[in-house]
Amino acid sequence: MLPYKSLIQINRKSGVAVYIQLCNSFIDLITNGTHQPADSLPSTRIISKLLGLNRNTAKMAYDELVSQGWAESIPRKGIFVQSKLPVLSKKKILDLESAADVPGISFAWNNPFEGIIVRQNIRNQLLAIDEGFPDVRLTPVDLLMREYRSISKKLIGKSFLRYGYPQGSDRLRAALCRYLSETRGLKVKPENILITKGSQMGIYLSAQLLITKYDTIAVGDLNYRHADETFKFAGARLLRIAVDAYGMNVDLLEEELKRKSIKAVYVIPHHHFPTTVTLSMERRLKLLRLAKVYRFAIIEDDYDFDFHYNHKPFVPLAGIDHGHNVIYIGSISKTFAPALRLGYLIAEPEFVGAACSLRQMIDKQGDSLLEEAFSLLYENGEMERHFRKSLKIYIERRDLFCSILQSNFKERISFKIPEGGLAVWSEFDSNIDVRQLSKTAGNKGLKIADGTFYHNESFKPNGLRLGFASLNKTEIIQALDLLQLALH
Fold first, then answer.
1. What is the CATH code for 4-98?
2. What is the pTM of this model?
3. CATH architecture assignment, domain 140-380
4. What is the pLDDT along the chain (488 residues), one digit of tens a residue?
5. CB 381 within 8 A of CB 236
6. How far apart are CA 418 and CA 424, in angstroms?
7. Of 8, 114, 166, 368, which is least packed with CB atoms within 10 Å of its CB?
8. CATH number of the structural domain 385-487
């Protein structure tokens, strides 16, 4: 008889019924080849005695095995492994006390994602300087949930539980048309908008539709890493264009266009990631002219337009694009709450239609109820009230954060006070190892990045985006005190 006391472990504290645990254990023994078809199983009396179980528990487990087709009961003979099951190679039991499956994957597959950084879970960290996220404590989640519950209780709300249109809620797209017209000067119709799961989905869909293998896409010499990785995955070659205090250097781009074909340009005109600089109006107009002449697409990532402090922000490229070259990508997640994945892609209806077709291959549709609830927040003005309230708080936090940086870190960190956005691009003195600084700060109770997210194949800045928005004033002082300690 097999050493069942070693092979079968019952956890009496588990939420899974004991008889189900016993049944599953026998299934494991069958599927790993320890028990073969037609093998006799120990009687309920024996197995219950060996494992210290009630005999009725063992009987219920065997009944479950029979009902699932793993075993068969033969009158006056006992319980046997189902004889019609295929024969499996027996598992070699060398050490039954520590028997375990060898980890690994038994099939061939492609992994083009080696070296790509997976975002860490920061939900449970007590004190962290992030890369520039909103403070979710300011988010009017109760108002959103109120609308969500209200819709779901109505008879018409039940219809949103069925499959919907991959382009997204009609009502939210109409609300966005009004909001974007009032705040950004974008004159678009609902057919120009695709609701996405955040701006990253918009970047992915655009890349897949625009790029074929070995196409060239121009990006900043410092750029949003997840966008770079998305373009590379689509088969693109990245052409790095310098970014200075006025944004991407469009004059350098023009020189490259004279020498080679470029399929698209990815640009973050407002609060460039990671440097936070803004693309000048002169360069915006020249970029649009070049796109028209050389017939390339502009992917405009406008992820946090709503947070601008010093003066009215520039009109987006999409708002002055008369050649229909711009694909405009925006985010609700990054301005409301990152975990609520919602964004939008705006382009000509034909492009949006193709993006819908691609989107439904990987994600049938978005969260219809959530989209409908957000549409009501836009319609009743709650979103604008939230942005106005947050803006006042964030500018105070920015000013406090930057004043402490100026007074306590001026010999170690150089930066420019950002005109908008939720973070400060901070370049550290060359004798500071940012990776080591991250470890030291972590040991002192402060989570900061190690800077590798901003590295690429040609540029490795010794800098970090230091987010101020998600910290209140007390937390800002505490966090920067810890950062100062880590630098000593």
1. 1.10.10.10
2. 0.81
3. 3-Layer(aba) Sandwich (3.40)
4. 789 988 999 999 898 999 999 999 999 999 989 999 999 999 999 999 999 999 999 999 999 999 999 999 999 899 999 999 988 776 554 444 444 455 666 777 777 777 666 655 555 557 999 999 999 999 888 888 888 888 877 756 566 666 677 899 999 999 999 999 998 889 999 999 999 998 999 999 999 999 999 999 999 999 999 999 999 999 999 999 999 999 999 999 999 999 999 999 999 999 899 999 999 999 999 999 999 999 999 999 998 888 888 777 889 999 999 889 999 999 988 778 888 889 999 999 999 999 999 999 988 877 888 898 899 999 999 999 999 999 999 999 999 999 999 999 988 999 999 988 999 999 999 999 999 999 999 999 999 999 999 998 888 999 999 999 999 999 999 999 999 999 98
5. no
6. 6
7. 114
8. 3.90.1150.10
Question: What is d(CA 417, CA 188) in angstroms, rounded to the nearest whole number?
Answer: 33
d(CA 429, CA 423): 19
Q: Which residues share a beta bridge with 266?
A: 299
Taking CA atoms, 401 is separated from 101, 379, 395, 426, 434, in Å, by 52, 34, 10, 12, 19
Inter-residue contact 286 to 298 (CB < 8 Å):
no
Q: Taking the CA atoms of the chain, what radius of gyration do you get in angstroms?
A: 29
Q: At which residue do the structure tokens 């002192």 appear?
A: 444
Q: Residue 144 carries which side chain, given as an amino acid letter?
A: L
d(CA 25, CA 370): 41
Q: What is the dihedral of CA 373, 376, 378, 382, to 10 degrees?
A: -90
Burial status of residue 157 (CB atoms within 10 A of its CB: 0-12, 13-18, 19 or more): middle
Tokens at 213, concatenated: 């293998």
Q: Which residue in this structure is represented by tokens 């078809």?
A: 37
CA distance 297 to 80: 67
* Distance (Å, whole) CA 401 – CA 417: 10
Token representation of residue 419: 């005109």
SS3 388: helix
At CA 118, angle to CA 116 and CA 124, rounded to 5? Answer: 160
* CATH 3.90.1150.10 domain locations along the chain: 385-487
Considering all CA atoms of the chain, what is the largest pairwise distance in Å, rounded to the nearest integer? Answer: 92
> CATH 3.40.640.10 occupies which residues in the chain?
140-380
Nearest in space to 366 (alpha carbons), one of 344, 337, 387, 384: 344
Neighbour-count burial for 384-401, b at 16+ CB within 10 Å, e otherwise: eebeeebeeebbebbebb
Angle at CA 184, nearest 5°, toward 182 and 187? 75
